[in-house]
Amino acid sequence: MLFLFILLLCACESHNIRGDHAQGHVQLDNRVGVGSMIPKIAPLGAPQVQQPFLPLLAPSPLTPFTNISIPKLSGQCTLNFTTAKSLLSVTAIDCWEFFAPYLANVMCCPQLEATLTVLIGQSSKHTNALALNGTVAKHCLSDVEQILMGQGASGDLKNICSINSSNLTEASCPVKHVNDFYDMVDTSKLLIACEDIDPVKECCYQICHNAILEAATTIASKGSNVLDLPEHSIRVNDCRNIVLRWIASKLDPSHAKKVLRGLSNCRLNKVCPLVLPEPKQVAKGCGHGIRNKTVCCNAMESYVSHVQKQTFVTNLQALGCAETLAMKLKKSNVTEDVYSLCHITLKDFSPQVAIQEFGCLLPSLPSDAIFDSTTGVTFICDLNDNIPAPWPSTSQVATSSCNKSVNIPALPAAASGQSCLYSHDVLIFLLVNLFFLVMALM
Fold it and tell me: Which superkingdom (predicted)?
C-alpha cells in the first residue's frame, strides 16, 4: 500500500505577534533567562537570517485523519465525555497516530493526563467521588482510548504514556470522597493558589505546587500516625492526583487544562528526556587534549546524530540535555569545549527536519498541535536563533529558568502582560508527513 504524505515547512518572521496557541501563535520573549550557562547575546558569526524552507509538492496530506470513526464504548463508564469534548479532540491531535511517540513527553502525554484529570474532576460534581473504582476505571480508560483512536490518535497510548487503569483510581490515597476532602483541606486557600497560575512564575515560586503538596500531605495522613515510612511518599503522590482532580472540578474544563498543563510543564522542563549513552567514541577522539579536530568533530557529530532520532524537546529541555552531555564528556576526560569547536547548537539535540536539517525545538510553555482540514496537523517549532550549546565551566551552577539576570533569545514570556522584545522570531509550521518524518528519524 502506497503512502503519500507531505512535510511542508514554512518559515514566517514574527514581529510583535501576540496570540494564543489555538491559533498557532506563540509569544516569545528574549528577556527571560534560563541560567548561568546561557550566553547573553546571540553568538558572533551565527547566521542572523535563515533561508526560508522550500515546500515539497505532494497530494493533499493527512486524508485518513479526517475520517473520524464512531467509537465502540463499553457503556460501563460513569464519566461524562461531553464535558471534555474539546479536550479529547485536542488530545487526539497531540497524540496523532504516527507522531505520538515523538511528541509524547512534551505534548501527548501531558495533555492525556490533563484530560483524564478533568474528566474525573468534572464527574465528581455528580458522583461525590474524586476517583473511580477498579472495574469502572478499566472501562473508562478503554473508552477514552476508543474515542481518541476514532479521532486519529495512536492506539498504543497506554504504553507510550505509561498509563493504566489504576491511574484513574485513588490508588493508596485514603481519601477519595469530596465530603472527606472538604473536611480535611483548606479548600479556599488551595483554590486561591491554583485557580489562575502564571506558567513561568509558578515554576520558580511554586505557589500552587506548594498548596497542592500541603493538601496532599494532609489527606495522606488520614488513618496513619507514621509519616516517615517509605510508603508515605507514594501515598502523598497518589493523594496529589486527588487534589488535582478536585481543582479540575472547580474550574471549567479548558481553564483546568491550562492550569494542569502549566503545572506539569514545570517538571518536564527540568528533565532531559533523551537517552544519552556513554560517549566512548567522543572520548576517544576528543579526550586528553584534541589532537585532530576532524576526528573529534566526526565523533561528536556521530553521537549527536543518534540523539536526534529520539524525540522532540523544548528549548529548556535541550539546554538541560546539553548540560548533561557536557558533564558526561568531562567525566570522560574531554576537557576542551567541543561544542564550540564542532559548532554544536541547542537545535542539534532535536530531530532534524527536511533536507535543510534544521532542528525543531518546541516552545518551553505548554503548546498543542493543531489540525486543519486544509493544512493537516501542524505544530510550532522555535527556530529563531542558532544558540550554541553552552559548555559549562567548573564555577557554573546548574541551569535554572528562574535566573532573571541572564538573557536568552527564543524563550516564551511570562503570562503577566509584560512588554516583550521580538527579534526576527521565526515560527516554523510543520505540516506533518509520515513518510518524510519517519525517514528523517530512522
Answer: Eukaryota
